[in-house]
Design brief:
The complex is a heterodimer of chains A (68) and B (247).
Chain A lengths: L5 H6 L4 H39 L14
Chain B lengths: L5 H4 L2 H33 L13 H28 L2 H33 L7 H22 L3 H15 L2 H11 L19 H34 L3 H7 L4
Helix pairs in contact in B: 2-8, 3-4, 3-6, 3-8, 4-5, 4-6, 4-8, 5-6, 5-7
The chains are: A mainly alpha (68), B mainly alpha (247).
Chain lengths: 68, 247
């Protein structure tokens, strides 16, 4: 085992900013991407359902991940 | 002999339901591998005698960098298949991969900067490895921007495919940059031709994390591809049939 205590673990031998800065931003980006994917899917489903209900829809509206 | 009808899977309708079943498994595998990889990386792998704990950035830096290059190659292959056979699903796969590839390229650059500062004393240097990885990031962004700027999806597909194919020459440049030029970035720690120059437990953590990122990238790309299919094919018969139950 490398760490004698949690505070030692979080301290990362003095490199906490660099190590946790790397992991935190990566985690945030992954979670962010998953949320964007979910929003895009919900929007695509909504638009598709509307098309099935009311017939052909020409133009997409907003909340499309690809337009950000 | 059983022959699989591969053409069946190139139809968006078949792909849509197949991908829907596969996505949870890829997410699950990614989460599991990530837990195992982080456990190895933080609790089993020892402190590095030169870099102390700063080296633990490797467990995301290297997997993200590998996947950033690999995803671009896969994207270029889908683009080439799309151009050659005019299969719309291939173009959709290329588009679905780009944002995930861009995200991982950013992760590679970001974690590289946070690793460079304590070990080299600089967040950024204009060396060949770093510069070519930055170009990769711009290629992904360029691909997405171009596709978003063109309204007609078929023209957007072709224009994007062209960027993907032209840009793919950058991937071997990134990979071999540490050999071709004198770079501050170190050479490859792991290669096919020689034994890895790192402790095997560190290597194990890195490889497990690489598989985790791989599985995640597949899940994300499949999920995005399904949305693209719905967006583009919502006027088709099969989408109507699929959604009829929900109307």
């Amino acid at each position: 085992m490398n760490w004698n205590s949690w505070s030692e673990f979080f301290h990362m031998g003095g490199y906490a900013l660099y190590v946790w800065g790397s992991y935190a931003v990566t985690a945030a980006l992954v979670v962010g991407e998953i949320l964007l994917l979910r929003a895009r899917r919900n929007n695509a489903l909504k638009m598709a359902l509307r098309t099935v209900k009311y017939g052909k829809v020409e133009k997409d509206e907003g909340n499309d991940e690809s337009t950000i | 002999m059983n022959s699989i009808n591969w053409y069946k899977y190139s139809s968006p309708a078949t792909f849509y339901s197949l991908a829907g079943k596969m996505i949870p498994w890829f997410y699950g595998a990614a989460a599991l591998l990530c837990l195992v990889g982080l456990y190895i990386g933080f609790f089993l792998a020892p402190t590095d005698f030169q870099q102390s704990e700063a080296y633990r950035i490797i467990f995301i830096h290297v997997p993200a960098s590998w996947m950033s290059m690999f995803i671009y190659v896969v994207m270029a292959v889908w683009a080439a298949i799309g151009l050659a056979f005019n299969t719309r699903l291939s173009f959709m796969m290329a588009s679905a991969l780009a944002p995930t590839g861009a995200m991982l390229t950013f992760v590679a650059l970001w974690t590289g900067a946070l690793w460079g500062k304590p070990t080299w004393g600089a967040w950024w240097v204009w060396d060949a490895r770093l510069t070519s990885e930055l170009i990769l990031f711009f290629l992904y962004i360029g691909f997405m921007a171009l596709q978003a700027a063109i309204d007609d999806p078929r023209r957007a597909d072709r224009a994007g495919a062209l960027i993907a194919l032209v840009g793919v020459v950058n991937v071997p440049i990134i990979y071999f940059s540490v050999r071709w030029w004198n770079t501050l970035h170190q050479g490859a720690s792991v290669s096919v031709t020689k034994a890895p120059s790192m402790a095997s437990i560190m290597l194990a953590g890195m490889l497990v994390m690489a598989f985790a990122v791989w599985m995640y990238a597949i899940a994300a790309a499949l999920s995005r591809a399904r949305s693209i299919i719905l967006e583009r094919e919502r006027n088709s018969q099969w989408v109507a049939q699929l959604l009829e139950a929900k109307v």
